[in-house]
Amino acid sequence: MMIRRVAFAATLVLSFLAAPLAAEAQQADKVYRVAILFPVTSEAGTAAFEAFRRRLRELGWVDGKNVVLDPKFGDGRYERLPDLAAELVRRSPDVIVARSSTTVHAVRQVTTAIPIVMDAVSDPVGSGFAASLARPGGNMTGTSFNSRELNAKRLELLHEIIPAAKDVAMLTNPTSERMRGQQVYDDMQVVAQRLGIRLHVVTARRPDELQTAFSAMVRNKARALIVNPDPFYGSERRRIIGLAATHRLPAIYFTGDWAESGGLMTYAPNLVELTAGAAVYVDKILKGAKPADLPVEQPTKFELVINLKTAKALGLTVPPSLLLRADRVIE
After folding, report:
1. What span, in angstroms and rounded, lies between the C-alpha atoms of 233 and 171?
2. 167 vs 155, 197, 226, 272, 276, CA distance in Å?
3. What is the number of alpha carbons within 13 Å of residue 53 lying toward its C-beta?
4. How far is 193 from 207, CA to CA, in rounded Å?
5. pTM across the whole model
6. Half-sphere exposure at residue 300, Cβ-oriented, CA atoms within 13 angstroms
7. Range picked from 89-98, 140-149, 272-281 for highest mean pLDDT
8. Strands (DSSP E) along the chain, which ranges?
9. Using CA atoms, how far apart are residues 79 and 199, in angstroms rounded to an integer?
10. How far is it, in rounded angstroms, from Cα 248 to Cα 173?
11. DSSP structural state of residue 329
12. Based on the number of CB atoms within 10 Å of its own CB, is 65 exposed (0-12), middle (13-18) or buried (19 or more)?
């Protein structure tokens, strides 16, 4: 009788030990699907996507082996995002990564169940995507940056490089989630008034409106330009830089690749690194973490990039104090 009881107890213990091992083996055998929705063109989003895939690999997730990555690109056309979001949701991914506020909004309209990792979203709390940065709640978390503070800082930097410019244009897309309400404009107006600058808001939401927007800047006698962060503008980067050069408008932009493409100056977080950071959230969620419990991450470093070739072409002399603060100078 004693032998039978010992044997039964041993069998029971082994069954308990085998259960989690079997579950782990089952989980290890599963191939997860991760959907990624970029609002920009595939060309503009390639660097960020590759950084994301590379970071996932470092975390043990190999595309085509234990995870399948499913990227989609909106080509800077907001009207495409709802259909692309719905298409991705129909494929039943385990996680969706959505870059920019407008893209998150489109994905949010078609699912409240699938975990969503926000990528480089401006003001997720103000947009209603998260209850707070510390505990976002719901099915969303991810990376964020404060475009209100950044745009005010860009205006200060632009004034530093061309202090004589009293009329400054701000190119913005009125359909973008980033510009809902007056918050960004109001913050910039405070800085503009302090610097003695008249701020002229000029809008363009489609490629055929860009030339008209620059003509409006000329009519307003703008001497400098701020391009507001927007996926559509990212997709039209080279054309906007060309128009600024044609109209001899010193301009500051929102990601470093604008300066590399010939833009005068950029001040921004490294968005490629932010997208790579989104991979860390995907890793945690695939391992069982809930988005509601993962704090939203904000960048701590911002890069100032100055293109001296463009400054010379515009007849500008960059103050030495500004060059010393630059993270990169393109000569």
Report:
1. 9
2. 11, 6, 11, 32, 38
3. 18
4. 31
5. 0.81
6. 2
7. 89-98
8. 32-38, 67-73, 95-99, 116-122, 140-145, 167-172, 198-203, 224-227, 251-253, 265-268, 303-307, 328-330
9. 29
10. 22
11. E
12. exposed
Q: Which tokens go with 70? A: 């499913």
Q: Quick check: do 30-145+271-293 and 147-269+303-330 share a fold?
A: yes
DSSP string, 80-125: GHHHHHHHHHHT--SEEEEESHHHHHHHHTT-SSS-EEEEEEE-TT
Identify the CATH number of the domain defined by range 147-269+303-330.
Answer: 3.40.50.2300
Rounded CA separation 57/223 (Å) = 47
Tokens of 1: 């009788």
Whose CA is closest to 263, among 273, 249, 275, 279?
249
Give the Cβ contact number of residue 18 at 10 Å: 11
Domain chopping of the chain, boundaries: 30-145+271-293, 147-269+303-330
3 state SS of 152: helix
How far, in Å, CA of 76 to CA of 82, rounded?
A: 13
The one-letter amino acid code at 208 reads D
Which positions ≥6 away from 136 have C-beta within 8 Å? 124, 129, 130, 291, 292, 294, 295, 296
pLDDT tens digits, 200-254:
999 999 999 999 999 999 999 999 999 988 888 988 999 999 999 999 999 999 8
**Type of residue at 14:** L
Distance separating alpha carbons of residues 94 and 134, to the nearest angstrom: 23
- In this structure, are strands 67-73 and 32-38 parallel, antiparallel, or unpaired? parallel
CATH fold label, 30-145+271-293: Rossmann fold (3.40.50)
